[in-house]
Amino acid sequence: MAGRRRRGIRLRELYAFSGGSGGRSRRWQVAGGHGYAGNKISTTKYTVVNLVPKSLFEQFRRVANVFFLVVSCVSFTPLAPYRAVSVLLPLVVVVGATMAKEAVEDWRRKQQDVEVNNRKVKVCREDQAFHQTEWKNIQVGDIVMVERDEFFPADLLLLSSSYEDGICYVETMNLDGETNLKLKQSLERRHRFVRRTRFTVFSFASTASFRDSKLRNTDYVFGIVIFTGHETKVMKNAMEAPSKRSKIERKMDKIIYVQISVLILIVSIGSVFFGIETKKDINGETFQRWYLRPDDTSDFFDPNKAFLASFFHFMTGLMLYGCFIPISLYISVEIVKVLQSTFINKDREMYYEEADKPARARTSNLNEELGQVDTVLSDKTGTLTCNSMEFVKCSIGGIAYGDVETESLEKNPHHQDPDYWGYYKDSHCDQNNSIKGFSFSDARLMNGEWSKQPHSDIIQKFFQVLAICHTVVPEVKNESTKILYEAESQMKLHLTYKILNIIEFTPSRKRMTVILRNDEGQLLLLSKGADSVMFDRLSEDGRASEAKTREHVNRYSEAGLRTLVVAYRELSEEEYREWNQMFEKANNSVSDNRGELVDAAADIIEQNLILIGATAVEDRLQKGVPECIEKLVQAGIKIWVLTGDKLETAVNIGFSCNLLRKDMKLIMITLDKPDIACFKDIEKQIFDARAEVRMAGSRDVLGLVIEGKSLTFALAGDLEKSFLELALGCTSVICCRTSPKQKALVARLVKKGTEGTILAVGDGANDVGMLQEADIGVGISGVEGMQAVMSSDFAIAQFRYLERLLLVHGHWCYRRIAAMICYFFYKNIMFGFTLFWYEAHASFSGQPAYNDWYISFYNLAFTSLPVIALGVFDQDVPASICLKFPSLHQDGVKNIFFSWRRILGWMVNGVCGSLIIFYLSTNIILPQAFRKDGSVAGAEILGATMYTAVVWTVNCQMALFLNYFTWIHHLFIWGSIVSWYVFLVVYGSLPTTISASAYQVFVEACAASPLYWSVTFFTMASALVPYFLFSGLQTTFFPRYHDLVQRAHLDGLYEHLIRKTIVPPPLSSSSS
């Protein structure tokens, strides 16, 4: 229990420390300003000086931008077919927009830094009084006063607190995400000398408090500043999350390389033909193309230097066909992903009203990856369950108590058998207890009846241990008499003497111990922990009820309850004195292995215990978890659960949440069986299980359960592949008794060993490694703090929202991004190949078919907005249909919409469309009169007509492809076409020095010509025929699953579709 609060404190009792000296000092800032880092921090990526160069470096790491930079440089030479400004403008716009986005994001970080640096804290000055000072002005050696609910401004060594014993309680959510309170002990009257070295501070974990942690349940503390600014722990540990890129984005880079290869190929073809034709221009004294004056020309067209002329043509061609590379693709994809993330954040169906927590896309890079998830790795406690413990049963002295029916027990086949549980039911017992965390009820113990039991002394000792051996801090709020309980662990919230020592619980120790002196002067050691470590520490005389207690613990675990074993022992004064000296020495050690020394000292005293009993608490499943898992399994997603619980508990939860089913054959890999103790035995179990999987029929459903010790061997180099093959052959996998490191290793193994997308979901600090190792990390913003959320890519409040995140948003985002990228390459290939056909028609002379500003605005204005609308708003089916037919998710898993076959199909569609537009335009317009006066069309009219046909075709192609029209789609599609005509009028009205070949071409020539309009619509319709025929034939005669679902949605024949038309893809044991 916390010490009494201190009435006041005298400054002369505070100690100030400096590097290499110690003791009391009346000079408070002995270390300030002597070469130590200031306390001002900066988390910005850029500065005013390096913003431009650093941002430019980031932009030109993209191959497309590098290509356009080279083209822009060449455009200033006589080789350029266009004016330099028209080539440079698109690059400047795209790079400038991206740099502006980076600058805005960095400015927001700067504002946050300013807010933090200007926070106030009380600092002791020369007059021995405390004055409000901004954080940025704090220096090493300052003594600061931190008050309740204030953040620590720097790393401090605690000198004193408002409690007489110098303790305080600190919340470290901003450091490790944990909401649990940490108990800290001040250095007051304990240490007179501290060497200021890096290892010293972290060795004094119990006496140091770090920047950005918060003081809780303590009126004030005094501390000396030892590390400031970027030297503090939180800043040293502030590392960027691992960079994750989606599979589609990585594939997009490969497509860019393919595009560049195609560009180089057609430029090379043109250059070769140009060189051959140029060399033929002079044959002796005969000029083949006399109108080009080959006898009086520059090196660019000199027949006597045909090879050099061919090289120059190659450089010209790189600029001429630069439109093959979609320069605005990257920024368009970024814009679309940000808008998609906004829809995820605003989805009311994923808003948890009870805790006021919406879903959060913490990164927009992986939206489409949600639709390709093949395997889900999930934590259990706090992820599948509520992490709200209810004390429901206990075993005391070998007798089981507790008659409350729980969610887990109701699903146990023995739950109606009193002999199995070892208790009797009393219908008169009051079970309507309103105390949070306490659902225990048993007439033999309640209302003072425990004192009448035969072993009342053991019962009393049992509840004394529960009442003392914990870290719960009761706090009475001033405005009410309600008592709030703050605990280091949610497991301890249901449990509330002079305490001499507290040996804290750690994942490696799996137990907590308190040493105290009672009112009678006895020294007692009280301990509770996991059965795997507690039973081995019992004395020979303390095992009287071991057999029965083990039996009860196993039955509780089988029912899905979480258990702790309770024990104690008495200590002699001499034994305690010798041990305490050893423990204090280990606790105050400044060496790197301080933790190991403390554990070793604790291990010495935590022996020869006397067993009292065991507790059983229930952690209920979250709402909707079984239904969510069932839906994900129907979607073909494999689900693994990785938990630290006992095997029996994990298996029971597996059945409760529909991960395991009664018709499923379970394969157990465990070291708990007799005669199983080494690597070879685990190897044999895995090989035997693999043989069983291979022999199983397609209808057999298998589940794998493996515990932590066995998993250690299974993850060894020689067994990794065999274990993974076994696991992939099972429908469900449960790994129990796993450590945080094992969770990360499993995620790494599955990610590297399969081609599918791996998603990890967890809620605690022990899940961070798994979340960062997986392709996608989803954090549950539960009761274990925010570290999992801070390390995740997406955050949701409840596990059930994973269903909508994957099956709805994942499906939409994947399909939208895939279609958007394919469409980008389609429209650029169509536009680029019309240039190629025209140049071939003009003997590869390097003359462009279009005005240079036509080319510049093609991607920036006339075709960009519709493709962005596609990426943001298109829906092949509504959300309700995505959930009704979860097998639609397999489209993403199999990458149907972004396979090389589909990508090349869109590219071929672009080539065909370009050939149709060029062939029809040239063969209809050129042979006949175009104007009313009988004159024929020139290159400027042909170029404007082909360009108009291209703009109409690519926008109408978008209208054909869309499944879901909104007013935004209509505005962008038809508005893009209208904007082309507006541009023609405005640009054509400018002087010829600016508009060049576009001068009055629309107003004076095209607009008045019926041939222009007829050719435009005829070529547009003809260019759409290949897509229309292909898609019509495919959906009619070779429909795929999503085609049938779309048709059923349009016709409203869902039940008929389910019964007769569609059989979802089989979820075999190897692929479900």
Automatic annotation (TrEMBL):
PROSITE patterns from the UniProt entry: ATPASE_E1_E2 (PS00154)
UniProt GO MF annotations: ATP binding; ATP hydrolysis activity; ATPase-coupled intramembrane lipid transporter activity; magnesium ion binding
P-type ATPase N-terminal domain sequence ranges: 34-85
GO CC terms of this entry: plasma membrane
Gene3D superfamilies: Calcium-transporting ATPase, cytoplasmic domain N, Calcium-transporting ATPase, cytoplasmic transduction domain A, HAD superfamily/HAD-like
GO biological process: phospholipid translocation
EC number: 7.6.2.1
Keywords for this protein: ATP-binding, Magnesium, Membrane, Metal-binding, Nucleotide-binding, Translocase, Transmembrane, Transmembrane helix
NCBIfam families: ATPase-Plipid, ATPase_P-type
Name used for this protein in its record: Phospholipid-transporting ATPase
Source organism (scientific name): Spirodela intermedia
